[in-house]
Structure formats: structure tokens, C-alpha cells
């Protein structure tokens, strides 16, 4: 059965994804006699409110094009990847039944990734019925490992916290979670930093619910055939980082002129206060506002993470928390300082988020598209990068809309499409994929008997980064190559050995990976 078409417009914030989606939809309706509907794929634009901060497309700019899954969730609701898939798939199927073309548009490429390539999403424990899973029997391997852990860690496993503790406020509890995961699944533990308590707790809940080690489940999952759900065309809008950063800074200034402060005030009044969170601390004095739930995660400064069971949570549109502090300032002097700090923080966070969005496409979405296409299917997944560096009307039309229009038209009509690297100079330089062989690394380091664990760890890290590769070769940008799971296992092997060095003070560590 032929796969049905889907167009996906992705890229960092500020490159004009929504504008292109509307232009393509109008083009299809006016010249191809095909209706199109836009389906939001931005994890923060699903929430109602804060339209300026989250940069939602105004109704006036939709030009009559239907937009779905935008502004329909309450700000306090947690909305994860699985929930979005459950909403997006019926919306796409409905569009196909009406002979419409669904156009996915948004910056959360992780959502698009798992929509197009099914059966590769980790179990979403936060939306699973705990009662139905608590009866799952633990595997003999997990039972044996639990028998060997200290009593305090066993007690922790039996009563895992409902919310991840804050590593900054409760480091002991964060380290305890990491230690427990290291005992039960060292490869999974090596994947996440101990400060990433949300992912660590999620892995422990996975073990508790399924009775199995996450690393083994995901290793087996890697063998699943990478077959796309739809015949997909990805249009990746990218831009020169320097130009994009300047544009994003200017956009923050424009948001302030459009009424960002008034929006924050109104939202603050309507919500009273963000959800309270104890972060796993028993001391009530450590309670603080939880800026990691619902829409609040988009407007604080929590670092981006790729949560395989949910979505890319990030400070995607910083502003609310910083301006909330400014509005609560008690005197004018403090108020001015907080305002400047809030503006600078919002600009910096937005720039960082744009870079992280680009990295997510390059390091996660692009590899799985290439892996799927290597299977030789007739319905390959296509990705084209267009240069959105210059957004003035003339340059936009030549560099973005015209090539996107032509590619979309030929894609829908089954015509031969151009080489993705030929459509722009940016694509020619950035879509080159160097297939590097997996490298073997042998490190034998001798340390002074009085060397500290930190110095040992630091020395090994430097040795890995600065190893001499010989034969006049440049040091590779990436030490690990291969598919997602292969890279994860290689990286975990290195990190596991480094952790062992730190905890046991081994003086002559040998690290080998393949």
C-alpha cells in the first residue's frame, strides 16, 4: 500500500517556519487545487496563553489556512510526545480522508521524528497507569542486583519520588538516584548526567514498572526496521548563526514593543502562581515554583534535554520567570537591574535554544532519515535544507519560497526531485555526511599514587579529547559513529570506565571502545 504524503517544516526558532507553511498551503490551494492544513509541532505552542513569548502565529497571518493542535492545552498540563502523537496521527488521517495535505510545522523535531518513524519511542511512564504496571515481576537479574544494593538504595527503589529532585537544591537525593541507577543499569546511568534527575528518575521508574533494564530494551529496539509511517518531505529552514542570533535579539525587542510585559502580567494574574514543587526535599522551606511543568518549562531557564520518553523540554522561549521577578521587585533601582537582566537572559536563552534545535535536527533527525533511506525503500524520506538567512521579501522568495514550492509540487506529483545538496549553498556545505569508520581507542594512563579522583577523571577526559590519531589525520569532531544505539553504547562504555576510575581510584585504567 502506497504511503500517504506529509510535509514537515522544521528548523530553529526565528527562521519563518509558520510563514512558509501558510505560503505553501495557499500555493497548493490556488495552483494545484489541493487543500492543506497546518498541524502544530511546537511543544510550547500547544498551550493557551503567552502568545507573544511562545511566538504563535497570529490569526491574521494564518490567511484562512486551518491550524490544528495550537493553543488548546491548559498551561499547567504536561503534554508529552506520546500525547502529541495520539492527537497528531488522527489529525493527519482526517486530512488524508478529506484529500488534504497535512503540513507539520514547528521547532520540536523530536515529535516529527517519532511521528514519521514509529516504534522507536521509549515507554512514556508518566502517562502510564502505575497500578497496572506495579504488578510486573522483576527479572531475576534485577532481583539479584537489588539484593546487592545498600539498604538505603533499596528503600529508595521501593518508594521512588513522584517528582524529580532538584540537583541544585537537593544534590544528595539526586546523587542517590544516580547511584541506584548505576547499580541496576550502569549503561543507562552512564547515558545521563546525575543532574539530569528527570531522566534518571524516569529510567528507574521504567525498571520498577517493567522489571527490565532500559539499556537492554533500547538495544533490542535498535534492531527494529526503520520504516516510515508516511511518505514524508522534510523542509529544514536554516540560517547563518550570526545573522540568526542578531534576528533573535531584535525579535525580543519587538516582543517587548508588542506587549510582552503586559502579557506576563495578565498571565501571572490568571494563573496566580506556577505549580509548587518540593523537589523531593523534606524541608518545607525549600519549596519553590516549578518552572518545569506545562508551559512554564518554556519560559524559565531549565536546560534543554532530549527526553526520549517525552519531548525536547527547554527554555525555548525564556522570559516569564525573569520578568516575573522584575514585576515583583520592591524598588525602582532593583526593578531596573532585573529588567536588564531579564532582557539579556531571554536573548541568551533564545539564541541557545535555536542552536540546540539545529543540533537536534542534525544529530537525531537527519541520521535516522539517512538510516531509513539506506534500506533502499521506494518510499524514501526526503529532507531539503533551505537558506533562511535573509528574510526580506525578495531574498525570501528566491531562497526559500520558490525552491520549497517547486520541491513540494514535484514531491506530490511523483516527479524526479533534485539532489538535496543542490538547492542552496548552505545545503551544499551542511548536508555532507562523512561516513567514518568506528574508531578504537586505547588509553593507558599512569597516575601518581596521591592523585585525586578529580585529577584522574580530568586527565582521562583530556587524553580522549586530545589523543594523537596518527597518519596526519585531524582529530575527528565526533569520537563515536554509527546508529543511535551504537553511539549510545560506545559512549556509555567510556563513561562507565571513567566512573569506575573515580569511585575505585584505579591507577592504571585502560579504556577501550568499539
Question: What does this molecule look like?
Answer:
With 514 residues, the protein is of the alpha/beta class. Among the domains are: 211 residues, Rossmann fold (3-Layer(aba) Sandwich); 79 residues, no CATH class. It is built from 19 helices and twelve strands. The strands form four sheets. A six-stranded parallel β-sheet has the order 3-2-4-1-5-10, with helices on both faces. It has a two-stranded antiparallel sheet with strand order 6-7. A hairpin with a 5-residue loop joins β8 and β9. It is globular and about 70 Å long. The two termini are 40 Å apart. The C terminus is likely disordered.
**Percent of residues in beta strands?**
5-15%
Termini, distance in Å?
A: 40 Å
Major sheet characteristics: 6 strands, parallel
Overall pLDDT confidence: 76
Task: Give Rg in angstroms.
Answer: 24 Å
Return the CATH architecture of the domain at 5-124 and 225-241 and 357-430: 3-Layer(aba) Sandwich
pLDDT < 50 runs, ≥5 residues: 123-136, 275-290, 298-317, 434-445, 467-491, 501-514
| Gross geometry | globular
By CATH reckoning, the class of the domain at 5-124 and 225-241 and 357-430 would read Alpha Beta
> Helix share of residues?
40-55%
Instruction: Determine the CATH topology of the domain at 5-124 and 225-241 and 357-430.
Output: Rossmann fold
**Which strand order does the major sheet show?**
3-2-4-1-5-10
Structural class: alpha/beta
Number of helical stretches of at least 4 residues? 19
Q: How many strand segments?
A: 12
Q: Could you name the CATH homologous superfamily of the domain at 5-124 and 225-241 and 357-430? A: P-loop containing nucleotide triphosphate hydrolases
InterPro entries: Dimethylallyltransferase, IPT, P-loop_NTPase
GO molecular function: ATP binding; tRNA dimethylallyltransferase activity
Protein name: tRNA dimethylallyltransferase
Family: Belongs to the IPP transferase family.
Amino acid at each position: 500500500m502506497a504511503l500517504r504524503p506529509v510535509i514537515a517544516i522544521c528548523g530553529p526558532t526565528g527562521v519563518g517556519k509558520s510563514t512558509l507553511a501558510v505560503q505553501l498551503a495557499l500555493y497548493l490551494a490556488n495552483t494545484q487545487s489541493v487543500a492543506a492544513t497546518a498541524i502544530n509541532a511546537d511543544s510550547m505552542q500547544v498551550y493557551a496563553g503567552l502568545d507573544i513569548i511562545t511566538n504563535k502565529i497570529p490569526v491574521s497571518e494564518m490567511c484562512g489556512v486551518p491550524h490544528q493542535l495550537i493553543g488548546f492545552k491548559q498551561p499547567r498540563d504536561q503534554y508529552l510526545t506520546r500525547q502529541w502523537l495520539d492527537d497528531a496521527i488522527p489529525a493527519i488521517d482526517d486530512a488524508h480522508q478529506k484529500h488534504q495535505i497535512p503540513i507539520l510545522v514547528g521547532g520540536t523535531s523530536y515529535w516529527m521524528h517519532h511521528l514519521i518513524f514509529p516504534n522507536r519511542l521509549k515507554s512514556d511512564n508518566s502517562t502510564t497507569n502505575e497500578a497496572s504496571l506495579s504488578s510486573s515481576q522483576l527479572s531475576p537479574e534485577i532481583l539479584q542486583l537489588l539484593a546487592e544494593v545498600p539498604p538505603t538504595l533499596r528503600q529508595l527503589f521501593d518508594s521512588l519520588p513522584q517528582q524529580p529532585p532538584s540537583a541544585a537544591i537537593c544534590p544528595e537525593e539526586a546523587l542517590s538516584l544516580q547511584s541506584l541507577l548505576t547499580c541496576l543499569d550502569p549503561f543507562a546511568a552512564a547515558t545521563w548526567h546525575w543532574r539530569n534527575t528527570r531522566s534518571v528518575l524516569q529510567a528507574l521508574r521504567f525498571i520498577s514498572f517493567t522489571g527490565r533494564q532500559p539499556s537492554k530494551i533500547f538495544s533490542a529496539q535498535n534492531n527494529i526496521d526503520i520504516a516510515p509511517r508516511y511518505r514524508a518531505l522534510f523542509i529544514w529552514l536554516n540560517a547563518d548563526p550570526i545573522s540568526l542570533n542578531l534576528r533573535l535579539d531584535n525579535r525580543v525587542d519587538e516582543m517587548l514593543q508588542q506587549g510582552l510585559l503586559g502579557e506576563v502580567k495578565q498571565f501571572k494574574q490568571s494563573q496566580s502562581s506556577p505549580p509548587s514543587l518540593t523537589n523531593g526535599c523534606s524541608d518545607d522551606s525549600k519549596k519553590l515554583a516549578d518552572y518545569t511543568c506545562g508551559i512554564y518549562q518554556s519560559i524559565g531557564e531549565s536546560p534543554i534535554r532530549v527526553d526520549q520518553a517525552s519531548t525536547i523540554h527547554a527554555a525555548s522561549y525564556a522570559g516569564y520567570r525573569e520578568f516575573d521577578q522584575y514585576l515583583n521587585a520592591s524598588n525602582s533601582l532593583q526593578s531596573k537591574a532585573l529588567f536588564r537582566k531579564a532582557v539579556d537572559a531571554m536573548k541568551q536563552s533564545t539564541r541557545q535554544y535555536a542552536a540546540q534545535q539545529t543540533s537536534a535536527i542534525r544529530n537525531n533527525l537527519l541520521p535516522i532519515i539517512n538510516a531509513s533511506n539506506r534500506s533502499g525503500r521506494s518510499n524514501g524520506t526526503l529532507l531539503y535544507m533551505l537558506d533562511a538567512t535573509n528574510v526580506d521579501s525578495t531574498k525570501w522568495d528566491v531562497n526559500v519560497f520558490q525552491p520549497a514550492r517547486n520541491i513540494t509540487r514535484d514531491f506530490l506529483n511523483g516527479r524526479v526531485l533534485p539532489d538535496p545538496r543542490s538547492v542552496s549553498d548552505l545545503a551544499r556545505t551542511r548536508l555532507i555526511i562523512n561516513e567514518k569508520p568506528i574508531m578504537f581507542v586505547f588509553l593507558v594512563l599512569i597516575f601518581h599514587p596521591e592523585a585525586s579522583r578529580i585529577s584522574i577523571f580530568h586527565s582521562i577526559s583530556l587524553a580522549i579529547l586530545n589523543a594523537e590519531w596518527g597518519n596526519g589525520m585531524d582529530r575527528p569532531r565526533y569520537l563515536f559513529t554509527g546508529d543511535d544505539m551504537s553511539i549510545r553504547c560506545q559512549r556509555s562504555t567510556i563513561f562507565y570506565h571513567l566512573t569506575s576510575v573515580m569511585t575505585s581510584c584505579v591507577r592504571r585504567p585502560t579504556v577501550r571502545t568499539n
